[in-house]
Target: DeoR/GlpR transcriptional regulator
Amino acid sequence: MLAQQRQTAILDLIRQRGGVRVSHLVSRFGVSDMTIRRDLEVLAERGLVDKVHGGATLAGPGSAEEPGFAAKSIRQQEEKRAIAERAAGMVEPGMAIALSAGTTTAALATLLSDVRGLTVVTNSIPVADALYQNPRADQTVVLTGGIRTPSDALTGPVAEAAISALNVDLLFLGVHGLSPRTGFTTPNLLEAGVNRCLIGAARRLVVLADHTKWETIGIATIAPLEAADVLITDVGLPAEARTVIGEQVGELVIVEP
Model:
């Protein structure tokens, strides 16, 4: 098989699966590790794939491109639900917690209606809506003001000022992506600022991120991986990623959908 034919076949596989490992391609095409890595380099230079540790994924959108909340809410639904269920188990009666914007944090919000005496601070309109739909007289929901983003987050100086005056026990943070080099990231500069304020207001940081967020990079870094006391993700996270993340976060929790 000619190099160009092999590269086309590799690209087709990546499009079908979303990503492939170098070891799988070596076995499939019967060529050396170095040959496959050269093929991936060619595809990456053409902007067709993104090289990641141990393999490659289909080239994602630009680091400043931000999908809307509705578009994100239909992705990895089972994984997000399992992550949210594990996170809900950390919430105790009488706590003050914060939930950032995000579809996984919105899933978590739907699971909190039975927690008595809970105070929830959020800059997310969907999170607040989920809590308002199942109100409790002994729960308080604090929704910040601010500038609305495509992901239905409230951002900017108004949101930052409101959050900076508060203190919470736990922050459940949703992120656009994470990698060892860039840490936890977002494609929205204003949202990064609000998320940093949320981290500053929290005693403990719990990051909620399904496996597709690995090696996805947004334009703005929120915090390094070491900032997370707990990272909850799903079994789709590759083994090498588990090793890297496990060495940097306080606790890595893997759930199965």
Summary: The chain has two domains: 3-60, 70-255.
